[in-house]
Design goal:
Shape: globular
Structural class: alpha/beta
Distance between the termini: 43 Å
CATH topology: Rossmann fold
CATH superfamily: HUPs
CATH architecture: 3-Layer(aba) Sandwich
Largest sheet: 5 strands, parallel
Strand content: 15-25%
Number of strands: 5
Helix content: 25-40%
Number of domains: 1
Radius of gyration: 16 Å
CATH class: Alpha Beta
Low-confidence stretches: 50-55
Number of helices: 6
Strand order of the largest sheet: 3-2-1-4-5
Mean pLDDT: 90
């Protein structure tokens, strides 16, 4: 059993396949470090391998909101808080990584596209061994589709884990402006 595994993503929003990856990490490690990428609300880097990850409409939730959603999902799932830590992770600033994640910590990446292969390349080049899980495109959840469902129907789909779904739903009912773009 490894002491640590890291798992990073935008989590816009955190959905059931993200939760599945956290569980996968905890089958291999005592703790999982969950890094929220694109943490700056006013700056997102464009990447040639991803046509949307830098767009404002693809990043409607603040880093604080995403952290709350992840924590709500993990608590509801019964995963002990001693097994995880959630924090902002500047994926585009590798010089900051050692301050957040110990060098040599395996990076869990589910690969669906060229973008995830690029993440694998970056982690490996920086001395973070990738732990690659090949994704099944036929069964891939799309956070873009989840956001669109919420925007058009006002309901949070069941592909969002229960704790996060309840929190996101409460924000929508209270009129907190989430998932409507900036």
């Amino acid at each position: 059993m490894l002491p640590l595994v890291a798992f990073t993503g935008r989590f816009q929003p955190f959905h059931s396949q993200h939760l599945e990856m956290v569980r996968f990490a905890l089958q291999r490690a005592t703790r999982v470090l969950i890094g929220i990428t694109n943490p700056e609300d006013d700056h997102h880097e464009h990447h040639p391998t991803s046509s949307h990850r830098h767009l404002d409409e693809s990043n409607p939730l603040s880093v604080s909101q995403r952290q709350q959603l992840i924590e709500a999902a993990l608590f509801e799932d019964g995963i002990s808080a001693s097994c995880w830590q959630v924090f902002p992770f500047p994926l585009d600033r590798c010089e900051c990584w050692p301050l957040l994640i110990p060098p040599g910590t395996p990076q869990l990446v589910r690969v669906f596209s060229a973008w995830e292969r690029e993440k694998v390349r970056r982690f490996e080049a920086a001395g973070y061994p990738p732990l690659v899980v090949e994704g099944d495109l036929a069964n891939r959840l799309s956070a873009s589709e989840i956001r669109q469902t919420i925007r058009t129907s006002g309901r949070v789909p069941e592909s969002v884990p229960l704790g996060a779904r309840e929190l996101l739903g409460s924000w929508l009912r209270s009129g907190i402006g989430v998932l409507h773009g900036r």
